[in-house]
Amino acid sequence: MAKLLPVEKRVLELIKEKGYIDVKYVSRKTGLPIRDISKIIDSLVRKNMLSELPLCNVDKCNYCPLRSFCPIKGSKKAKVFVLKVKEQ
């Protein structure tokens, strides 16, 4: 398993706690700027901790497990990631 920085561990903890996150939420919780959170998420993808799902498709919203609380329905800028790591 790839060695994680403390801030990467914190982001993974936030994901595990909530089940989902957005960069604004993580930014508030960590005190880091959104651009840095985006870089951390990219790093977690490269380390195979997160996997990016294809861009949301409004036609498929009815089948999405996140539909009940999705703040981005139909957004063209949305990125969705799945946690790939097991509980440690």
Structure in words:
With 88 residues, this protein is mainly alpha-helical. The chain has helices spanning 6-18, 23-30, 34-46, and strands spanning 50-53, 80-83. A two-stranded antiparallel ribbon has the order 1-2. It is globular and about 40 Å long. It starts with 5 loop residues before the first helix and ends in a 5-residue tail after the last strand. The model has no long low-confidence stretch (mean pLDDT 80).
Described by strand count, sense and barrel closure, the largest sheet is: 2 strands, antiparallel
Shape: globular
Helical content stands at 25-40%
Give, in spatial order, the strands making up the sheet with the most strands: 1-2
Which consecutive residue ranges, at least 5 long each, have pLDDT under 50?
none
N-to-C terminal Cα separation, in Å? 11 Å
Oligomerization state of this entry?
single chain
- SSE-based structural type: mainly alpha
What value does the Rg take, in angstroms? Answer: 13 Å
Name the beta content range: 5-15%
- Strand tally: 2
Count, helices: 3
